Automatic annotation (TrEMBL):
Residues 29-65 are annotated as: Disordered. Residues 35-45 have a biased composition (Basic and acidic residues). The lineage of its organism: Bacteria, Bacillati, Actinomycetota, Actinomycetes, Kitasatosporales. Keywords: Signal. Residues 46-59 have a biased composition (Low complexity). The keyword Signal applies. It comes from Streptomyces odorifer. Residues 1-27 form the signal peptide. This is Lipoprotein.
Length: 194
């Protein structure tokens, strides 16, 4: 059973990586005239266009963000929360460093001993299904690596980078969940079916 889960996690992670690469490639081919800029960015050329170019396809209804969270030196946009038939919930979006200096995501780390080696990442993120009174932690592989974005080297001042995190999917009846990332305020997000 563990080998099946490991293969499934690897195939899902590989699929997410391919989608991200394709989205970045398509963003480089776009005109850049489309899409709503949620905030001005200081000297942000590459990071922002990649994030904005990838936004319309996975976003919530009408191409709008599911949630925007601001706290500390970062602004987080949640663009999608997709439940797939394999029993996974993939939440994704972008994070912008609004502070001065490099942001390392140190307060987003997991408190779990097994996930500590993931460093500045979304390993500490959780999903709470308030209706079912159940909390879901980020998935991990058999070596303790989270199925989430790791911010290796941090995020430079004014830059925007894409992120994702995978969780076990809440039951079909659960359409809204709360996303909690580090010390940021929780955000209620709508789940879509993949």
């Amino acid at each position: 059973m563990n080998k099946w889960r490991e293969r499934k996690a690897r195939s899902v992670l590989g699929g997410v990586a391919v989608i991200n690469v394709l989205a970045l490639a398509l963003a480089g081919c776009g005109t850049g005239g489309e899409g709503e800029d949620r905030s001005p960015s200081k000297g942000d050329s590459k990071g922002s266009s990649a994030s904005e170019g990838a936004a319309p396809e996975p976003s919530g209804a009408g191409g709008q963000a599911l949630a925007q969270i601001k706290g500390g030196d970062v602004a987080v946009t949640v663009k999608s929360a997709v439940r797939d038939s394999g029993g996974f919930l993939t939440v994704s979006g972008d994070v912008q460093n609004t502070g001065s200096g490099i942001w390392l995501a140190s307060d987003w780390q997991s408190d779990e001993r097994e996930l500590k080696k993931n460093g500045g990442s979304l390993a500490g993120a959780t999903i709470v299904d308030t209706a079912a009174k159940k909390k879901y932690l980020v998935l991990r592989d058999t070596t303790g690596r989270c199925l989430c974005t790791k911010f290796e080297g941090g995020v430079d001042e004014g830059k925007t980078v894409d992120w994702y995190a995978q969780f076990p999917a809440p039951p079909q009846g659960s359409e809204k969940v709360e996303l909690q990332i580090g010390t940021m305020p929780p955000a209620t997000i709508q789940i879509s079916e993949g």
